[in-house]
Write a structure and sequence with these properties.
With 151 residues, the protein is mainly α. The chain has one domain (21-149): Arc Repressor Mutant, subunit A. The chain has helices at 2-10, 21-40, 46-58, 63-70, 74-86, 108-117, 119-124, 132-149; strands spanning 60-62, 90-93, 103-106. A 3-stranded antiparallel sheet has the order 1-3-2. The longest helix has 20 residues, at 21-40.
């Protein structure tokens, strides 16, 4: 009996219920799923919404700076930006003074979408059943963890 318990405890570190990564993954997946409804009216995916929020805040950024802010590499970000450009929401410009950089800028249509996007946070309010204080604490802990993982 003791040998069996020792053997079972040896594998505790790889039990799903003992993983921090799993509830983080599952919660993130569910939050993104809940965003689909409000974002459908904007014709944006969740990742496109993140990019648009950064552009609404900063106006224009290089592709590299934008990628850093939303934690996306250029292999993921470039096709997403092409789709946003096809939708008429952004323009991608190579400045003459440095053609290696790609400047991402909102179009007039992208700027107009900002007003409609104000409905999204209201629609998402209450989707995570935590108090305001708990949500603030969770956000702070996640930001602290993320900072600790950045190289």
């Amino acid at each position: 009996m003791i040998q069996q318990e020792a053997a079972e405890s040896r594998y505790d570190s790889i039990r799903l219920e003992n993983q921090l990564c799993f509830p983080l993954y599952a919660c993130a997946k569910e939050v993104v799923r809940l965003y689909r409804g409000p974002l459908d009216s904007l014709k944006l995916t969740y990742t496109q919404y993140l990019v648009m929020m950064v552009l609404w805040e900063f106006g224009s950024l290089t592709e590299g700076d934008l990628g850093k802010k939303v934690h996306l590499d250029s292999g993921t970000l470039a096709p997403l930006l092409k789709r946003l450009e096809k939708q008429g929401l952004i323009s991608r410009i190579r400045p003459e003074e440095n053609e290696r950089k790609l400047l991402i800028r909102l179009t007039a249509e992208g700027e107009v979408l900002k007003e409609k996007a104000l409905e999204v946070p209201c629609a998402m309010e209450g989707c995570i059943k935590l108090s305001a204080g708990e949500l603030t604490q969770l956000k702070g802990l996640l930001e602290k963890a993320l900072l600790g993982m950045e190289a």
